[in-house]
Amino acid sequence: MRVALVQEASDLDPAVNRDRLAARVAEAGPEVDLVVLPEVFARDFGKAGSDVSAHAETLEGPFVTAAVAAAGATGTTVVAGMFERSDDPGRPFNTLVVVDGGGVRASYRKIHLYDSFGYRESDRLLAGPMAPVTVDVAGFRLGLLTCYDLRFPELARTLVVDHGAEVLVCPAAWVAGEGKVRHWSTLAAARAIENTAYVAATGQPAPRYSGHSVLLDPLGAVVAEAGPDAEVLVGEVRRSVLEDARRTNPSLANRRL
């Protein structure tokens, strides 16, 4: 499976983001099976603590419609983040959608909200249900994570062990700060190594966010990695590499708890 990780900033204008999504998916072309864009790519968070409820959409709204059209034009699958309306008008979900030309394949509402490092995401957003989400793409099972979820190894382990995920896909808007790139890189590698799974982690770029999107193989080796600035990475996820890693390090089979 060929994967494109789009490290690009989300704008405050949803129309700009829809155009950017269409352009990046078109650039990736039909030879790419999966295009992963960052968290809340439909519309950026804005200033810390901003009310984003006015920018929430349904899964039938303009952002998802644009993503489906872009995916259909190239025959690929797209993963991207958005604010999705909830039953609480003031607090939408932070949602990932997985679409192809036929429509929405899956959606995941972020479980772990970013109430950390001085932020209170739960003041403006609603946590999703405790329901891990997987979806099959190009012969691989993807497990969905969003940003802060990366700090919770139990979610990744559940996706892999209980739901069969082979590729952990983690769109993010990983806020920049002292030590934050090291946290991002270390946690992404840990999730790959401990689960013998690929990790495809896509972030928004500097200066507000940390960048350093990365595709890691199941032994934690870097397949492709970005720097801090806007960039599109393309890398291969290979069945033979996954199987070899799990033979070399059968830690999932050796689990006792």
UniProtKB/TrEMBL annotation:
Its EC number is 3.5.1.128. SUPFAM superfamilies: Carbon-nitrogen hydrolase (SSF56317). Keywords: Hydrolase. GO terms for molecular function: deaminated glutathione amidase activity. It is an enzyme of class 3 (hydrolase). Gene3D superfamilies: Carbon-nitrogen hydrolase. Pfam families: CN_hydrolase. CDD domains: nitrilase_3 (cd07581). It comes from the Bacteria. InterPro entries: C-N_Hydrolase, C-N_Hydrolase_sf. Residues 1-239 form the CN hydrolase domain. Belongs to the carbon-nitrogen hydrolase superfamily. NIT1/NIT2 family. This is Amidohydrolase. It comes from Nocardioides zeae.
